[in-house]
Amino acid sequence: MYRLHYAPDNASLVIRLVLDGAGIPYQTALVDRARRQHDAPAYRALNPTGLIPTLETPQGPISETGAILLWLTDMHQLGPGPQSPERGVFLKWLFYLSNSAHADLRQIFYPHQYCPADAHPGHHVILTDRMRGHFALLDAAAQRNPALFAAGRPLGAYTVTLTRWSALYPPNAPRWFDLAAYPALLALAEAQEARVETPVIARAEGLGPHPFTKAEQPNPPEGSVY
User: Fold this and answer.
1) CA dihedral 71, 76, 79, 80 (to 10 degrees)
2) Which of 50, 76, 102 represents a domain boundary (last residue)?
3) How far apart are CA 142 and CA 138, in angstroms?
4) Do 143 and 42 lie in a common domain?
5) How much is the pTM?
6) Does one domain contain both 188 and 140?
7) Which residues contact 60 (CB under 8 A, 6 or more apart)?
8) Is residue 167 part of a domain?
9) Which pLDDT does position 59 carry in this prediction?
10) pLDDT at 158
11) Which candidate, 66, 54, 64, places its Cα nearest to that of 27?
12) DSSP assignment, residue 156?
């Protein structure tokens, strides 16, 4: 059985949506960020970067959200296989989500890691404009490829989680994201909330009754978002 090292409303949420959506059995292991458990030697032995998530598998631990999703896709037939004519499209958008959209969103969350304090306002303007461009591309891609971007599947789960975070974080920054501006992504958020696993995950991580269409600050029963 897999073991998912997670923290509430962290990137592990993407993996949890996919695992539960596919009915794949797994156990969870809380990484308490408030206690810096992601920096502890035991966790660093599994994932030297100290980032969340890590998925322990019979073949060893896997880290990086995109890598975990690709591995699960191939192991459990959750998307186009290597011989499928849709494989290239799937890989393109998976790596775009991981390397471009998620990476840029992370810069909005942690500006102190990327620029000096006096540059934070300008940095925020530049990155939020980039993110709006990313979401426009993803909205168009979801319209063209609804099966690839289905709720509960790797591309759909990754995309809808990025929309949630864009509506919430950082909590003290100006709000810039409007889900209604992206019709296909709004439909994806509604479809994800309609799935049976979503309220279970939402309760486990304290995400509220409408975690994607009406995102609110989480109140997790265990662990810490930060």
Assistant:
1) 90
2) 76
3) 6
4) no
5) 0.97
6) yes
7) none
8) yes
9) 96
10) 98
11) 54
12) H
